[in-house]
Design goal:
transcription regulation, 2 domains, globular, 42% helix, Rossmann fold
């Protein structure tokens, strides 16, 4: 969700209606923390047209295997264009926005010279000449001891442990030292009772729109996780709609900015006989304030403009409510000649579970999907086991999870990369703070493992569909070709799993209603 906050701020700065930095908040509204994750967007940066979108490859703005021959002059020109584009209102919400963000941007966008690539190991782990070899310190052990002391409310031991950890933690160190820095911050905030105010802090004023843009795409290019999940979903939908259907209805739980759908639209354009009528019901959590549905409406307008530019018949309805309160009637389903797909990538983990309220909202959403009775339900999950009420158990699982993520950036992005530093602070650091220091409704990061979601889905009356092995194979080949060798795409049962060094980070599977 912190990554969504980064994207939200970029969007607000680069649209015709930017918000002043002091009005931007990085947190869910405290009075309704689960109802407003950071995914409002009111427009996109206007970039030079990237040409035809390659739906097989170009979900992210440029390939992780970049063209390193781009000139510095082009980089500077595009950076200036990014910084100034929010004032260019003569071409609002143009189709070039989506083409640029989702097309072959490697030729046009600012080159992130130090971002991750398949080369891996670009972050040289060897010591610089003359650098003294550091004494090995079990930082994870120190963090665990501190958490144990906190679990039994031994404040003196916590204070001493934090002093020791601070000696070996730094936001500018190696991956482990950076992880320790943000975990120490979270432990200190929990000890001092300052978690809520820290998590509710505003976006720093000294970060430019261009920097935010670079931060976001640095992660996309260092890691295939978001990209591959969306490609998996789009390929499955394209195959389902290839049988000559005249209408395709997608109910998207967690539509965010609609970045996933232009690539699908391009694929539908290639269908024999032309594209079907595309109908999207975009669902997201309401924003705080007087316009809770502002973001979902803005997403619909962008998608409508994009479809119009390619003569694709398009219908849209936006819903901004708590997901468990949505009824079947709200979705206005028409099954007469309509292929119906439910899509939800990595967002059900932000819906409250039965540890917060007796009637589990997550199960309510799955029961609604059963009533929808779609031809396919595509479910992507963040694979994590740190959604437990017991602090020390949650801490240990979060430590394992974030150790992998910090190590991933350590291997794929140089240590002095500015975008990496910002990303670790604004995304990983804030997520760690929320998981470790926040409780109750203020804790919005609540992932479950894909096996736990399997049990929930089966209990709701859903049935898993077989994986399309051709799609999985093609995505695996893309990851091998374009990303570090430590990334993996595997399968377990009917789940496609993405991982780093053997640890599963994300999973995707397809479902339908049992006995459909």
């Amino acid at each position: 969700m912190a990554l969504q906050a980064t994207e939200k701020y970029l969007s607000d700065l680069l649209t015709g209606n930017p918000r002043p930095p002091h009005r931007f908040s990085w947190y869910s509204h405290p009075s309704n923390s689960m109802s407003s994750p950071f995914d409002s967007q009111r427009g996109l940066v206007h970039l030079p047209n990237g040409g035809e979108v390659d739906t097989e490859m170009k979900l992210c703005p440029y390939n992780a295997k970049r063209n390193h021959n781009d000139s510095a002059e082009t980089n500077q020109r595009n950076s200036k264009h990014l910084a100034a584009s929010h004032s260019e209102e003569s071409e609002p919400l143009s189709d070039m926005c989506y083409d640029a963000l989702l097309g072959p941007i490697g030729r046009n966008i600012t080159k992130l010279e130090n971002s991750g690539s398949k080369a891996g190991g670009r972050n040289r782990r060897g010591r610089k000449k003359g650098e003294t070899k550091k004494e090995f310190v079990d930082i994870c052990g120190l963090l665990s001891q501190c958490a144990q002391s906190m679990a039994v409310n031994d404040i003196r031991a916590v204070t001493e442990a934090l002093k020791n950890i601070r000696m070996h933690a730094s936001p500018h160190g190696n991956g482990t030292e950076r992880m320790a820095f943000y975990f120490a911050n979270a432990l200190e905030a929990r000890s001092n009772g300052t978690a809520t105010s820290l998590y509710a802090s505003k976006h720093p004023n000294n970060i430019s729109a261009a920097d935010i843009f670079k931060v976001h795409w640095m992660y996309i290019n260092a890691s295939p996780f978001k990209r591959v999940s969306a490609m998996m979903a789009n390929k499955c939908i394209t195959k389902l709609a290839s049988g000559g259907a005249t209408r395709l209805h997608i109910i998207d739980f967690g539509i965010q900015y609609g970045f996933q759908w232009p690539c699908l639209i391009q694929a539908l354009l290639k269908r024999p006989g032309g594209p079907p009528t595309l109908r999207i019901t975009g669902i997201d959590f309401p924003e705080p304030g007087f316009r809770p549905d502002e973001q979902v409406k803005a997403t619909g307008l962008r998608l409508e403009k994009y479809c119009k530019s390619y003569n694709v018949p398009f219908e849209y309805k936006g819903i901004a409510r708590k997901w468990e309160s949505i009824s079947l009637e709200d979705l206005e389903i028409d099954r007469d000649g309509e292929v119906l797909v439910v899509n939800c990538l990595d967002r059900l983990g932000n819906v409250p579970d039965d540890t917060l309220v007796p009637n589990c909202p997550r199960d309510s959403v799955l029961n609604l999907i059963k009533l929808i009775n779609p031809d396919m339900f595509i479910h992507g999950v963040l694979n994590g086991a740190f959604n437990v009420p017991f602090f020390y158990t949650r801490f240990r699982e979060a430590l394992f999870h974030f150790s992998s993520l910090f190590d991933m950036l350590e291997v794929t992005v140089p240590g002095d990369d500015k975008q990496r530093l910002l990303f670790e602070e604004m995304v990983f650091g804030r997520e760690v703070l929320n998981v470790i220091a926040c409780e109750g409704t203020e804790r919005v990061e609540r992932p479950e493992t894909y096996k736990q979601w399997q049990v929930r889905s089966l209990r709701a009356g859903l049935q898993q569909l077989p994986l399309d092995q051709e799609i999985v194979k093609s995505l695996r080949e893309k990851v091998i070709s374009d990303y570090d060798k430590n990334f993996s795409v595997e399968s377990d049962g009917n789940w496609m799993l993405q991982g780093w060094k053997g640890r599963v980070v994300q999973a995707v599977s397809c479902w339908k209603t049992k006995n459909n």
